[in-house]
Amino acid sequence: MSETPGVLDGAIAPPDNTRLFGHDEAEAFLAQSYRSGKGHHAILIEGPEGIGKATLAFRFANHVLSHPDPVEAPDHIADPDPSSVVSRQISSGASHNLLHLTRPVDDKTGRVKSAITVDEVRRAGHFFSQTSGTGNWRIVIIDPADDLNRNAANAILKILEEPPKRAMFLVLSHAPGKLLPTIRSRCMPLRLLPLDDSAMGNALNHLGLNISGEKREALLQASKGSVAQALKLINYGGSDIVDVFTAAISAEGPSARKQMHKLADVLAQKDGDIILGFFMEHATEELMQRAKAAALAGDLKGAERRARLSSSLSERIAIAQAYNLDKKQMVLSILEDMRSV
Prior knowledge:
Blueprint: H1 24-35, E1 42-46, H2 53-66, H3 85-92, E2 98-101, H4 118-129, E3 138-142, H5 150-161, E4 167-173, H6 181-185, E5 188-191, H7 197-206, H8 213-223, H9 227-235, H10 238-250, H11 253-267, H12 273-296, H13 300-322, H14 327-340
Parallel strand pairs: 1-4, 1-5, 2-3, 3-4
Helix pairs in contact: 1-2, 4-5, 8-9, 10-11, 10-12, 11-14, 12-13, 13-14
């Protein structure tokens, strides 16, 4: 199991990761923009989950803090040197010039909370109120901003509207359309694309996952350019979840109920939040594909029903988590609804 909260088994925590694959153009843009002295104070790094957004953010933060004078900074971002003072401070979370805002761990349960709260954002206010002993940049990484609750999002917005001098925000988002429009309007967007097969292969090799042949091709196709998806498929039984899900949706009679309960039992496990999230992503994508197919076939009502159900899934899981509802019943309800549309 990963020892870092929120980091998948088999992954390298972004502050510790010395390699990034597939985003050379984005790195070059950030380095050259910073060197010009005209870089934006808030950068919205957007793209699907697990393609390297957080790793890019920490690499760029390391670059900036290692070269506080933009004019003297290199025109490229080099792999961080783990032995450097800046890298050691970032890796240990001891940097006075970098704040990583992410979902906090609940002291009572020991589990990661479902949202970034306003109390976490207040840390950013305190962070900026302190005077840097080195006169260096102050950088806040919001990872991801999608997890900000309403009060936290409004609190971040206030800081973005009047940023302190030599302050930089690296705002990560898997789904920028869900962010407050006012937050998006105050950030410069930097879109990252899913990794191609070559970059995915290099990233997996970097993690020690040397998969070849038909298994490699199947994994690359199923992960869709996301290292996180690949790890969920390999280390969290994601491939088995997809198979049982398909059987539960397509089967008839008693066999369908058996497959549905089998899947619900697995997803309702006490520490199954990651695989439950994987299931929700897969179910949402399946519904959107069905909605698209129905629309192309002229079944507009059917397309609307599927699209509406797809958009409700994330809300249903959020409500279940917030009120500690029975996960098994929630999964069974979702499967029943999917079988009916």
